[in-house]
Amino acid sequence: MTHKEQRIAVAVDGGGSGSRILLFDKKGQVLDLFKGPPLNYAALGRDKFEENVRQISLKLKTSYNYSLEDFVFSLAGSSKFRGEILPILAKELGSKRIWLITDIEAAYMAATRGRDAIIVSSGTGSFAYGRKSGKEARAGGWGYLFDDEGSAYWIGRELLRRIFMCYDGRIGGCEILREKFLEHVGVEKVEDSLSTLYREYNTPYRIAQFSKLACEAAAQGDSVALSVLEDAARELEKLVSAVESRLGFTEKVEVYGVGSVITNCELFARILKERIEEKERIFSVSTTPTVAGCVFYYLIRVEGISPEECWKINIEI
Question: Which domains does the chain carry?
Fold first, then answer.
């Protein structure tokens, strides 16, 4: 069988800062992976989105000697713009065999391989999502202005709030945290930090970076930083409970932790595990990348492979 006769599929995980494009065969074997341009339709607008898809299409056509007809796209917020996105993809890729799923669905498939379970995510934002017997439910994810408790942004903002409370004398126990904060911001006194914070840390993404500081300080014994992580874990557990209740789980449910805070902070993952398992659940951290969720979606939906068989497939990236 020549490359042109071999049936190869393409998985694309597109975000606001870039995309990951993965080529795989019908057994889930990864053939290649490369990075591409951003694919957040809401942020880019139609013209720029179309241009970026064209870049990916050109790369696929000129770099690979495969017959590429099947595509699975995971795009943040894609459900709102599905009617606009799909025609663009079909036109630029020259294919009608395109499956479009949200980033939440892809994260779920990456962690669970399609089994009934719940995922809870703490990245820049936060949410919980689950499926049971064909039903699905989500909690959280309403954005940083109104929601996102337990997220990196929420942890960062809460950490800053308590640092200032420490400085006022309203709470104590943040000596380690204060020193780390001053070093991180590059000032000598807490009162000198505001101008830097308002100038350089005035976006959710930048404030979310302080979540790393919370993890480091808590690991070194800072009680205030530890309390922030414990509160964040409690908030995430509430999201899990909401989804669990709405889906009617009665048996012991599997919960998978995803997102940068959970996967990069071992202490926080341990705290969250304790909170989740207090209510007779099974918790584990999933480090499987979202783009792999597109692959498992395709294998189950198109190739008819069962979720149990998907657990035997190791997608190495």
Answer: 7-101+289-310 (3.30.420.40), 104-286 (3.30.420.40)
